[in-house]
Amino acid sequence: MAGEYRFSFGPWNIHEGADPFGPAVREPFSFKEKLDFAVKAGFSGIQFHDDDAVDVSLPVAEQDKRLAELKKMLDDMGLEAEFIAPRLWEHPMTIDGGWTSNSAEARKYAFERSKRAVDIAGALGTRNIVLWPAREGTYIREAKDPKVAADRFVEYIDTLLARDKNIRILGEMKPNEPMDSAFCPTTGHFLAIASRTIDPSRVGILIESAHAILANLEPSEEMGFALSFGKLWGVHLNDQNSLKFDEDKTFGSANLGRAFSQVYILDKYGYGKNGEYVGLDIKVLRTQPREVSMKHLVNSKRMFEMLVEKVRACNENYIEELRQKRDYEELSFYISKVLMGGE
Ligand code: XLS
Ligand code: MG
Predict the structure, then answer these.
(1) What is the value of pTM for the model shown?
(2) I need a labelling partner for 320 at 20 to 30 A (CA). Which of 26, 109, 118, 256 fits?
(3) Is pLDDT above 60 for 2?
(4) Cβ(85) – ligand 1 distance below 6 Å
(5) Is the Cβ atom of 135 under 6 angstroms away from ligand 1?
(6) What does the alpha-carbon distance between residue 260 and residue 240 come to, in Å, rounded to a whole number?
(7) Which CATH number belongs to the domain containing residue 21 in this structure?
């Protein structure tokens, strides 16, 4: 029934369990094993950071050769690169961020690396560049000038838009972690920045459920907002148990009603009809044994599909009737009954 949706995940979603408090606890799966799993589990898109796709320290000619091989491998397996995201948060040059760093040299590094990420996207046949502004923020408020930071967002996005007329930028906003305070923390902030760029029509949004929750916002409302602007070009579905570290839990595992609301709004407004993927961005629990360390993806995809069925089983006329009567108590109970299969 939900067969018209296409699903994606990133290779980092299958990992060895290291966290800030302890080392890896599982042997890694190879990149090829991850792709084999994707095909077997019914995923058709793969999300890439630039360095998931290729070793970005290699000479460009060598990178291009390897990217051509990767593109062929994806094609042969019936897979597609959904997006490239420049990973600007691990390199020594980006200790204090990329395009909002106080260091001109660091900003130059961020620009050069990101322009290359645009080329990598071209080589893999995707026009989507995802920006998660990981270290574009502060630990100490006076460390960076927030007015200058907003201007630098515009300059950075303009540079990428100018690099390749075909690409488009999807901002993935998150209010904190690793920074105490991230610049441009929500969908609305990023769309405001988009309006100042050289080509706002090529700047949109990817909404991650957990990031919205961390901003104390409802993911489905953020999605509705972006849909209203025609800007919802990607999602990272997952879940989050209140305001803690970025948990990236299995979709629907912490708050089923909240997962329902997201599928409701996505399905109602035809998300995916223009080729958008139902993307997942989920961490494996550290406790999960290796042989079952892909269940979070399988189960999240299944949860989405089951919720599509629930959403489509809803009596829209009855929902509207309850809205008109202002009987939201009954509406709440009705949604609970839909979810629980009760009468
Ligand atoms: C981190 C982000 C990251 C992006 C891709 O919180 O979710 O994984 O999705 O750079
Ligand atoms: Mg994400």
Answers:
(1) 0.97
(2) 256
(3) no
(4) yes
(5) no
(6) 14
(7) 3.20.20.150
